[in-house]
Amino acid sequence: MALTTQPLARADLADRLALSLFRRGSVQDALVLCEQALALLATNFSADGVRMRVQIERTRIRALLALSRFEEARQICQRALDLVKPVALLMPGLADYVRAYALLVLGYIPRFQGRNQEARQQLLKCVKHARAANLREVEADALIYLSAVQRDLGDFAGAEANVRQALIVAQTIENDFQAANILHFMSVISYYQDDLTSAHTRSQQAMALKHWH
After folding, report:
1. CA 147 to CA 113: how far, in whole Å?
2. Nearest of 109, 172, 188, 96 to residue 140 by alpha carbon
3. For the chain, first and last CA: distance in Å?
4. Smallest Cα–Cα separation from 178: which of 130, 124, 141?
5. Is the dihedral of CA 126, 131, 134, 139 positive or negative?
6. Are 147 and 185 in contact (CB under 8 A)?
7. In this predicted model, what pLDDT tens digit does every residue of 125-151 receive, in sequence order?
8. I want to staple 143 with a disulfide (CB 3.0 to 4.6 A). Which of 24, 117, 122, 166 is the partner?
9. 107 CB neighbour count, 10 Å cutoff
10. Are 19 and 59 in contact (CB under 8 A)?
11. What one-character-per-residue DSSP string does 124-139 give?
């Protein structure tokens, strides 16, 4: 960061460092870095600047969720949805990009709090916008959460269909870590339906992927 004075480059580096700190458990430090990075972009309203802001806000929201500061995370996402409305017709790609990330969180929070019908509505919209923006990892995450919601609502067929689609997405983008987590979740769905053979097979497949990497 000391080697460049470009705000966009400094913000990108700050976000990378914040994400690294988050993954190492230094959540509060990550949050501080995100806020510093966002300050660097305060007057940058270019498409690249907006995308970088969304990227940083995503890391910031992950930190807020880890700290159980759900209302702050929800407000950030709702504000993002409100701000993108005026430019949606002029820049539909950017609008889909912002909406996909925001709706993923707005689906995750009610899912975590047991409001499954609300979560289902938000996640269905998230899948739509993630596909439009070609955000495959976001699409897979939304499908996993949606599958979990359907499982809790007793819709095992819907849960199975969506988690299979999530696995296809993860395999297509060669994200083996995500694929392993999806296979683990698929084993849970099988277990809930008393299909122990399938549950065991899927667990073994998940373990094989994780051990391979």
Report:
1. 16
2. 172
3. 31
4. 141
5. positive
6. yes
7. 999 999 999 999 999 999 999 999 999
8. 166
9. 26
10. yes
11. HHHHHHHHHTT-HHHH
Two tokens, residue 102: 């925001």
Predicted confidence (pLDDT) per residue in 15-49, tens digit: 999 989 998 999 999 999 999 888 888 777 777 88
How many other CB atoms are there within 10 angstroms of residue 76's CB atom? 16
What is the C-alpha to C-alpha distance for residues 76 and 98, in angstroms, rounded to an integer? 12
DSSP 152-173: HTT-HHHHHHHHHHHHHHHHHT
**pTM summary value:** 0.82
Q: For residue 53, which phi and psi values (nearest 5 degrees)?
A: -60, -45
Q: Of 154, 82, 66, whose CA–CA distance to 117 is shortest? A: 154
What does the alpha-carbon distance between residue 178 and residue 206 come to, in Å, rounded to a whole number? 10
